[in-house]
Structures are given as C-alpha cells and as structure tokens.
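Tip: read the tokens left to right.
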C-alpha cells in the first residue's frame, strides 16, 4: 500500500517528493520559498498536471508569505508577479494556470478587474489576512484533488472488465496528483474492487516515467505490472495481449482533443487499429474550455540533453540535431470516453463536456 505522499505541507514548508530520484531514492525537497517550487516544477521533481497545480498553489502561498509590506497595492502587485513566475514554469499542463487563477481570485477585487484600491481601503483585509486566505485556498485545492481522484477511480472502475490487461503510457498515478492518481487511480480502484487486472507500462521515452514511476507505483501497490518499450505497444495489441488503454492528460480542449505525454497519440492510433477502447482519465480542471480544439494547445519543447543522453551518459553523437516536444495531441475521434471526477463522458465531446461543466457549476451554486 502507498506509504508516501507526492507533497506535504507543514509549518510553512512544502515538502515535494523528488521524482527525478525514483525509483532508487525516496527523498523530499524542502521548499521554503516559491523559487524552489518553480525549480521543482521546471526540472520535473514534481510532475503531472494535478500535482503541478497543487504545488503551484502552495508556491503562491510561500511567495506571498515572503512579501514584507502592509501596502495593499504593493502586495497585490507582488502576488501577481509571483503568479506569473509560477505559470511560466510549464506551458502545457492547464491545471497549473487553473490553480494559480483560482488562488488569485482570493485577492480583494479579483486580479483582472483593474481596481487599484489598497486592500485596507476596500474590504478591510490586511495582507496578513489575505495570506491566511491563500493558504486555506491552497489546502482546499489539495483536498479536492484527493477526493476527485477517489471519485474518478470509482467512475472509471465500472468500465473495467472483471479480467483485463491494461496498457498505460507515462505516469498518471499518485505521483502525478495529490491522491491515488487519474489513470492509475482507475486501475487502483478496479484492483481494490476485486477485479483481476494486470498492467503493461510503456517505458515512455525520453525520461522513462513509465519505467521509473508507473512500474514502481504498481509494484508498491501489489498490482501485476509488465514493462515494455514504447515501440512494443503495437505488437502487444496485435497479439491480443491488451484489452484496453487508459492514460492521463495534461490539457483537454473543449472538443475533447487530448494533450498528454509524447507518444500518447501513437498509442491511440494503435488502439483504434486494433479495436481497443482508449480511455482518458482527468479531472474537470484539466479541461480547457477556452480552447476550441487541440490545435490551440501550447506544446512544451524541452532540452535536447533529455534525448541525447540519460543519467549523465551520452547515447547520441555530439552535435546531432534534436526535436524534443514533451507532449502530443490525440484527436477526440480516437478517444472512447473521458473519465472525470464528475462522471464519464462520451462523444460528441463538444456537447458532453459542455454539459458536464454546466452541471458542475450548477452544483456549486446550490
């Protein structure tokens, strides 16, 4: 059973599990300032859209706590600057922007309305009081992710046959969230429900999140797992060794196009060719209703060194040209269903996702 946490807040310090050291070491980074959180996000010590969002929320708390001013205008300007730094760390995962925007709404006169009055002159809150509210909001984001993971797992487990071999790509487990995970949360829930399941984990080049993280999580949980290289997935399906695919997501457009770790698109094409269900598990916060399609999703490109070498050793000739997009986009037509913390939706996604959003907002107003 899981005996570790992706992150932990205590006594004004955010401790983040350093995923770059897994599976060899379980070591936590002590973040006492927001710049350390930015570095942890940028270097993938914390990764996965929901986990990045929660970490950024706590990062904003740390940044605001360090602002030594009683002037409301100056305080808000400082918080805005810190928010911008956090959002700039990784462009594709929308939960990062979502969490920071939600945190900014705690400030008096939401940040975007152009009202320049100081905090004390508007609603009587001092910067100290707002700092407390920011912490409360970050803790709420963390708790909601825990509960959302649980619900997602329950919804998704109903789609899993009594016996199933499940292929997954990258890591969408507890390491990518505050809770039990998105895609791996569904797998965990099915396992706990007594279903006889096993997992095939793509290694997920170039940083091997499947090999290092997913395989490790499944072993920790006692769920049978077999590691394969990314280019084995098609042959695995052709031999009838997989029954379905479940992956996570870093951003989903309003039409159901899905941005996820590079290689996901290829797995979806293969699943379609072999008649296998291709499920995406992600919370409602991962759906970007401001983007009409996946063509508008910004795709992060990372350092060439991630491809030319690994663990400090070069595996490619020096000076070779490298293209290293961290994500790709899977068209909605290849997605069988999207499993969210609010329920499971099916095509046409432009309609079903919009209805899901409307129902969620209606529940909030009650």
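Filled-in amino acids:
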């Amino acid at each position: 059973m899981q005996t570790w946490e992706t992150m932990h807040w205590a006594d004004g310090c955010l401790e983040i599990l350093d995923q770059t050291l897994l599976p060899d070491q379980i070591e936590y980074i002590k973040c006492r300032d927001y710049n350390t959180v930015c570095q942890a996000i940028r270097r993938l010590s914390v990764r996965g859209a929901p986990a990045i969002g929660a970490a950024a929320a706590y990062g904003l708390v740390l940044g605001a706590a360090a602002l030594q001013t009683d002037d409301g205008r100056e305080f808000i300007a400082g918080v805005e600057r810190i928010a911008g730094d956090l959002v700039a760390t990784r462009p594709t995962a929308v939960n990062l922007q979502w969490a920071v925007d939600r945190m900014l709404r705690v400030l008096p006169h939401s940040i975007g309305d152009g009202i320049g009055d100081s905090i004390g002159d508007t609603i009587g809150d001092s910067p100290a009081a707002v700092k407390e509210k920011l912490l409360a909001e970050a803790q709420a984001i963390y708790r909601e992710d825990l509960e959302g993971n649980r619900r997602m797992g329950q919804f998704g487990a109903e789609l899993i046959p009594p016996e199933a071999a499940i292929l997954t790509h990258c890591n969408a487990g507890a390491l990518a969230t505050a809770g039990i995970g998105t895609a791996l949360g569904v797998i965990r829930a099915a396992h706990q429900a007594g279903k006889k399941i096993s997992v095939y984990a793509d290694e997920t080049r170039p940083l091997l999140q499947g090999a290092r993280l997913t395989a490790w999580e499944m072993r920790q949980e006692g769920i049978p797992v077999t590691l394969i290289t990314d280019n084995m997935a098609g042959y695995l399906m052709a031999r009838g060794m997989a029954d379905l695919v479940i992956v996570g997501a870093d951003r989903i457009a309003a039409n159901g196009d899905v941005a996820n770790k590079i290689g996901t698109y290829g797995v979806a094409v293969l699943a379609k060719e072999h008649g296998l269900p291709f499920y995406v598990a992600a919370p409602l916060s991962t759906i970007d209703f401001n983007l009409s399609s996946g063509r508008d999703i910004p795709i992060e490109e990372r350092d060439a060194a991630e491809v030319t070498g690994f663990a400090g050793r070069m595996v490619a000739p020096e000076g070779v040209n490298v293209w290293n997009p961290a994500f790709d986009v899977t068209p909605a037509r290849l997605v069988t269903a999207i499993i969210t913390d609010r329920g499971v939706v099916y095509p046409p996604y432009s309609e079903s996702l919009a209805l899901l959003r409307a129902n969620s907002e209606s529940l909030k107003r009650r």
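The chain has twelve helices and 16 strands. The mean pLDDT is 94.
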